[in-house]
Design goal:
The protein is α/β, with parallel strands linked by helices and 199 residues long. The protein contains seven helices and nine strands, in the order βαβββαββαβαβααβα. The strands form two sheets. The protein has a five-stranded parallel sheet, sandwiched between helices. Strand 5 and strand 6 form a beta hairpin. Helix 1 crosses helix 7. Bound molecules: guanosine-5'-monophosphate. Guanosine-5'-monophosphate binds next to strand 5, strand 6 and helix 4.
């Protein structure tokens, strides 16, 4: 797959819908697509590598980046930690003609849409609410209170689907990954009625 021009695709969607897994599939199988590495103030989880999964920084460093315009977008996610997309890296990749993928939350997606109106906004949706709940609980990495907080966020986030150019339903990671990669080829042509698989 080689898109004929560089594109910025923003992948957003509710908590636990599988954005990270779909992005990991793109990272593994499509090195021609550059994936932004976000900064975050949350601590690294086991297995996460600084500079690969995130740049793990402290509050002061985050403040500094924000104050100096170093972030394309930023958000406080789940009321807990701050996340942001380093601006320079995205601009460099696009200027070099590479396609770029941002895997970010909804608040961040809205900021990118404003800052870069040519970007293609893709909503990753669960096959159903029941399945989303199952995935949230099944992951088992959060406390009950944290899960409830994330479910509430997910309810709000699901309602935002209509703000996006295109929806991909994450029934199967491989299929969702292939559909996402195709967006880099089709661009806004893919934002036509009928591409959305039925749920
Ligand atoms: P996690 O901490 O589980 O890796 O990610 C939590 C949430 O933060 C996910 O919804 C993820 O998409 C979002 N996120 C990751 N990086 C960024 C970023 O740079 N900006 C924004 N706005 N959200 C992000």
């Amino acid at each position: 797959m080689r898109p004929d021009r560089s594109r910025l695709v923003v992948l957003a969607g509710p908590t636990a819908v599988g954005k990270g897994t779909v992005a990991a599939c793109v990272r593994r199988d499509h090195p021609e697509i550059w994936i932004s590495v976000s900064v975050t103030t949350r601590p690294a989880r086991p297995g996460e590598v600084d500079g690969v999964h995130y740049h793990f920084i402290d509050e002061a460093q985050f403040d500094e980046l924000e104050a100096t315009g170093g972030l394309l977008e930023s958000a406080l996610v789940h009321g807990r930690a701050r996340y942001g997309t380093p601006r320079a890296a995205v601009e460099e990749q696009l200027a070099a003609g590479r396609s770029a993928l941002l895997e970010i939350d909804l608040q961040g997606a809205r900021q990118v849409r404003k800052a870069m109106p040519d970007s293609l906004m893709c909503f990753l949706a669960p096959p159903s609410w029941e399945e989303l709940t199952r995935r949230l609980v099944g992951r088992g990495t959060e406390s009950a209170a944290e899960r409830e907080r994330r479910l509430e966020t997910a309810r709000v986030e699901l309602a935002a689907e209509s703000e996006f150019d295109v929806t991909i339903v994450n029934t199967d990671v491989g299929t969702a990954c292939a559909e996402l990669v195709q967006l880099f080829v089709d661009g806004h042509d893919s934002a036509r009625p009928g591409i959305e698989p039925s749920r």
